[in-house]
Amino acid sequence: MKIIWALILAATIGTLSACNTVKGAGQDIQSAGEAIDNTATKVQKKM
């Protein structure tokens, strides 16, 4: 069980270090939201 938590912690730290700042994390989340919105718009236009 300790190994699983260690892997989860390592993955979390790796993910957070990629952003470096809260602002960077916000920008990453915003970009993901925009990509989802664009995809949904394209699907709606095809229907």
UniProtKB/TrEMBL annotation:
InterPro entries assigned: Entericidin
Keywords, in A-Z order: Cell membrane, Lipoprotein, Membrane, Palmitate, Signal
Keyword check for Lipoprotein:
yes
What Pfam families would the database entry show?
A: Entericidin
Per the record, GO CC terms? membrane
What is the annotated signal peptide range for this record?
Answer: 1-18
Name the Gene Ontology biological process terms. response to toxic substance
**Hey, which family's this protein in?**
Belongs to the EcnA/EcnB lipoprotein family.
Recorded protein name is Entericidin A/B family lipoprotein
Q: Which organism is it from?
A: Testudinibacter aquarius
